[in-house]
């Protein structure tokens, strides 16, 4: 089984959209998937129609809840909902070994799944550190602009001490360009070339697949759905299908 953290320290790069599409696409291929929402914005939890009476990721991290009690079900797989109180996680998690809280909790259920996907906040915090400590690999969504790629480079600086101190086996699956409008402009082509160079510096790759800009992604979220069910014939759905196939082929 594989635990994948989807992260970028820059906001607006499509982390939640990518996690949701991965969850749906892998589920449709017959894989058993668990998603963990660690973002205090709770967007993934909202899309998955989380129940408010169940324990959340916060309870898992503080030890106040059993992970099996926190697992909810959706049409595209199981998930653990976020909590807005996770914004205080750096203060709430103040015990020795706080970096390992999520890893320890997932150890109790990981045998039940083929993939566990972790959606993270757009910031370096104890939440992101827990996600990186618990996972096998990392997918970095990035939009085609220079600031997003700077976020990728900052993330790489975070992963190095994680690899040294809390998770020696972690590796970066690759950088995924999202909200892409094509190579028609010199700027987009330049940013794509920069993304390739950034990937090489991180000893990883730029995925061959790019996720194009499409209103269907936001529409699917507004309908509390996923791109595969909402717009199965859309070009962006084909993009996500190709991305998932590329990811699985690298296994």
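^ Assign residues to that structure.
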């Amino acid at each position: 089984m594989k635990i994948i953290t989807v992260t970028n320290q820059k906001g607006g790069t499509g982390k939640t959209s990518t996690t949701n599409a991965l969850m749906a696409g892998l589920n449709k291929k017959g894989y058993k998937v668990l998603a963990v929402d660690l973002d205090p914005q709770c967007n993934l939890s909202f899309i998955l129609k989380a129940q408010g009476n169940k324990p959340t990721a916060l309870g898992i991290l503080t030890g106040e809840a059993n992970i099996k009690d926190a697992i909810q079900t959706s049409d595209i797989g199981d998930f653990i909902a976020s909590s807005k109180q996770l914004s205080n996680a750096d203060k709430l998690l103040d015990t020795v070994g706080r970096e390992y809280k999520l890893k320890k909790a997932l150890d109790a259920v990981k045998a039940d799944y083929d993939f566990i996907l972790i959606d993270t906040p757009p910031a370096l915090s104890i939440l992101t550190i827990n996600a990186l400590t618990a996972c096998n690999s990392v997918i970095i969504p990035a939009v085609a602009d220079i600031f997003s790629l700077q976020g990728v480079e900052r993330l790489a600086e975070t992963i190095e001490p994680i690899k040294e101190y809390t998770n020696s086996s972690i590796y970066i699956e690759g950088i995924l360009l999202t909200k892409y409008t094509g190579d028609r402009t010199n700027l987009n082509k330049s940013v794509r070339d920069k993304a390739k160079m950034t990937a090489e510096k991180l000893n990883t790759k730029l995925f061959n697949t790019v996720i194009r800009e499409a209103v269907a992604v936001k529409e699917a979220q507004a309908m509390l759905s996923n791109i595969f069910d909402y717009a199965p014939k859309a070009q962006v759905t084909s993009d996500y299908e190709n991305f998932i196939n590329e990811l699985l082929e690298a296994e």
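Strands lie at 2-6, 33-37, 71-74, 77-80, 115-119, 137-143, 171-178.
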